[in-house]
Amino acid sequence: MLLNYKLSGQPLGSAEPVVLLHGLFGSLENLNIIARALSESFTVINLDLRNHGQSFKSDVMDYTSMAQDVLNLLEHLKINQAHLVGHSMGGKVAMQVAMLDERKINKLVVLDIAPVDYHPRHDTIIRALNAVATAQVASRAEADAIMQTYIEEQGVRGFLLKSLAKNEQGQLEWRFNLGVIEANYNKIISNINTTHSCLCDTLFLKGNNSDYIEAQHRDAIMQSFSNARAKIIQGAGHWLHAEKPQAVNRSIIDFIQ
C-alpha cells in the first residue's frame, strides 16, 4: 500500500524533489510552511506517514516499516534520489530511510530530533486524545473543552485538533490511528535501527528552547551520520518551523541548494 501524498511546486521530473515528513499525531499539512518556501525551486512531496492522516492503517508501527513506506513511494513516483526533510518522528523516519538506502538520499534535514532513545513525554496528550474519542464529540470546540482538562497550551490543542475530522458516517474522529500509536509508543520513542554510519550530507536543526537535541547527543549523531552538521534556531522550541519559519526555511534552502 502507498502512503497518501500531495505534490506541489515544480512539476515532477523538472526539479529536484524534496520529501517532507511530519511528526507524531500530525499529517502532511503540518509542514506546509516549508513546502511553500521550497515550491519555487523544487518539486515538493508532503506525505502522511502510516497510521496518520489519510494514509493506510496498520498494526505494525516501527521505523523500519515507516521508512520502507517512503522508499516504496519514491519507487512508485520513479524518483531515484530526493532530499528528505523530517520533523520529530518524521526526522527519525528520514534517518531510517538513509540507513536503509542512502543512495536514495541527496541531502537529509532533521528537525529537532536525534538518533537516540527518548523517555515517554506524551502520556497526558494520549489521555486527552482518548477522552475525546470516548466522548464522541459533535464539534472541535467540544473536543477542545475536553482537552483543556489535560493540556494547557492552546497551540498544542490546536495542532492536535487539525486531525479531528468527520468519517464516512459523519462522526468526528481522530484521523491518526490512536490505538495502534498508543500500543507502539515505546517503539516510536526508541532509537532508529542504526546499522552503520551514513555518509549522506545531513543537517540537524535544533530549536534553542527545545530539549530534544542535547549536547550529550552529539556522539550518537556523529556515529550514525558522520557528515552531519548542526544549526540552532534561536527563539524556537520543538515546533521550530512554526515558531521561526523564515529562519528554518532559509537554513533548509541554503543547505540543499
Provide a descriptive summary of the structure in words.
By secondary structure, the protein is an alpha/beta fold. The chain has helices at residues 32-38, 63-76, 89-100, 123-135, 140-147, 154-161, 178-183, 185-188, 218-224, 240-243, 245-256; strands at 5-9, 17-21, 43-47, 82-87, 105-111, 164-166, 172-174, 201-207, 228-233. Helices cover 37% and strands 18% of the residues. The strands form 2 sheets. A 7-stranded mixed beta sheet has the order 1-3-2-4-5-8-9, sandwiched between helices. Strands 6-7 form a two-stranded antiparallel sheet. Helix 1 (32-38) crosses helix 11. The longest helix is centred in the first third of the chain and has 14 residues, at 63-76.
Order of SSEs: EEHEHEHEHHHEEHHEHEHH
Give the strand line-up of the largest sheet.
1-3-2-4-5-8-9
Uncertain stretches: none
Task: Supply the helix-strand structural class.
Answer: alpha/beta
- Helix count equals 11
The radius of gyration is: 18 Å
Bin the strand percentage: 15-25%
Question: What's the main sheet like?
Answer: 7 strands, mixed
Helix content: 25-40%
Please state the average pLDDT score. Answer: 97
- Label the overall shape: globular
Q: How many extended strands? A: 9
Task: Determine the N-to-C terminus distance.
Answer: 32 Å
